[in-house]
Design brief:
It is a single chain. With 380 residues, the chain is mostly beta strands. The protein has one domain (3-352): Methylamine Dehydrogenase, Chain H (7 Propeller). It has helices at 3-7, 18-28, 237-240, and strands at 40-43, 54-59, 66-72, 78-85, 113-115, 121-126, 131-137, 143-150, 162-168, 173-178, 185-190, 196-203, 214-220, 226-233, 251-253, 259-261, 272-276, 287-289, 296-302, 305-313, 318-324, 330-332, 336-337. Strands 19, 20, 21, 22 and 23 form a five-stranded antiparallel sheet that branches. A four-stranded antiparallel sheet has the order 1-2-3-4, with no helix packed on it. A hairpin with a 6-residue loop joins strand 2 and strand 3. The longest helix has 11 residues, at 18-28. The relative contact order is 0.17.
Length: 380
């Protein structure tokens, strides 16, 4: 039996209604990233009958980065209200994760635009120059630029990789996840007016054996006690190479001459990384958890279920339900695979199972939060 078959159970072994599961996941998660050329959307939901209306925000990821503010009506139609410059730089058409000069930027968008829980502040990453911008949010949803500060990680090459944010308002701390390390997680201070401060702390998702890992996003548990970080690769594909069509080479030769899959958690059970959050907002030592399938890319807690979250897998081609207890113990359920008969999702790679098969399709799944709680989607 191959590592792939041991890692991902056969579809027939899971007696789950996939369609029902995905509908629940899409409707119940506290936020979902939109991949590709549009890096991130943020929308905060109203309570009551107008739950589908209100402001919605996204960043452009242009070299001169900007936030676009849309107004959503009750039917979900969008009208652009304003564009506000962030004061920082996006990566533009350059794709840092792979080093491609011009490619859909499918990796720099998971949680890159977030609202504070009280919807008075909005934060966004500027992946091009490794900075974070903050905005004050008016009663009408309009934005006033508050600050922009570097994360502390220098830009090496054409672009930085600051890509995901999580905010702990009680600590006044913003957690910034970068795709490239070794300093994957940096901290920034935030005051009530949105003024940002660079802090010295730095944390990694690398291990002693894996010194080139690629995280995808950071999510704070609803009780604020843990920062969960998803990963996608154990070695950066910018360093290991791509097939001619741009899909990553996932079977990579090692120093001992053997080939190894570099998709995280495949098969090593360490793809989900948990950091305890201390009383002062700093992080404790990383705890590496078994995510149960390859490349646990996306994490979203369920509405009204502070102990339950969904994991979306890039290479695993599906989702799983997971729980976390008050001590940080994580239990991940079985993988529920997406029906890939029309073609593989864009964040899945046929080369994982068949190294020479490189055709990719562009099916993408996205969702908008349906609760007042906000993570990567938020509306006021």
């Amino acid at each position: 039996m191959s590592n792939y078959d041991k890692e991902i159970p056969p579809e027939k072994a899971e007696l789950v209604d996939r369609r029902a599961f995905l509908e629940v996941a899409a409707g119940a998660v506290a936020g979902a990233a939109v991949s590709g050329a549009i890096p991130e959307i943020a929308a905060a939901q109203n309570s009551g009958s107008d739950r589908g209306s209100g402001p919605l925000y996204m960043q452009t990821n242009e070299i001169q980065n900007a936030i676009i503010h849309y107004r959503r009506d009750g039917g979900g139609a969008l009208t652009e209200v304003e564009r506000v410059l962030t004061g920082g730089a996006g990566s533009g058409t350059f794709k840092p994760i792979s080093g491609q000069a011009s490619a859909p930027n499918a990796f720099e968008g998971a949680g890159s635009v977030i609202l504070s829980p009280n919807r008075q502040l909005l934060f966004t990453t500027n992946g091009g120059d490794n900075s974070v911008s903050s905005f004050r949010v008016g009663k009408d949803g309009r934005l006033t630029h508050a600050d922009v500060k570097p994360t502390g990680n220098p830009v090496k090459g054409k672009s930085g990789t600051a890509k995901s944010l999580a905010y702990a308002p009680s600590k006044g701390i913003l957690f910034v996840v970068h795709s490239f390390g070794p300093d994957h997680v940096r901290l920034m201070s935030v005051d009530a007016q949105g003024t940002l401060g660079m802090r010295p702390e730095r944390y990694t998702v690398n291990t002693q054996e894996k010194t080139d890992r690629v995280p995808t996003m950071g999510v704070l548990s609803p009780n604020g006690k843990f920062l969960l970080v998803g990963t996608t690769f154990d070695q950066s594909i910018a360093h290991t190479g791509l097939y001619p069509d741009g899909s990553p080479i996932l079977w990579v030769p090692q120093p001992d001459g053997k080939y190894r899959v570099i998709a995280s958690n495949a098969p090593d059970p360490d793809g989900l990384v948990l950091f305890p959050v201390q009383d002062d907002g700093t992080l404790g030592g990383a705890k590496f958890q078994d995510a149960k399938a390859a490349s646990p890319f996306y994490i979203a807690f369920l509405n009204g279920r502070p102990d339950a979250f969904v994991i979306g897998y890039a290479v695993g081609n599906g989702c799983a339900m997971a729980t976390i207890d008050s001590d940080g113990k994580i239990n991940v359920g079985p993988l529920v695979k997406i029906d890939t008969s029309p073609g593989l999702p864009s964040d899945s790679y046929a080369g994982y199972r068949y190294p020479r098969m490189t055709e990719r399709c562009t099916l993408r799944i996205s969702a908008i939060a349906t609760s007042a709680a906000t993570t990567s989607t938020a509306a006021a």
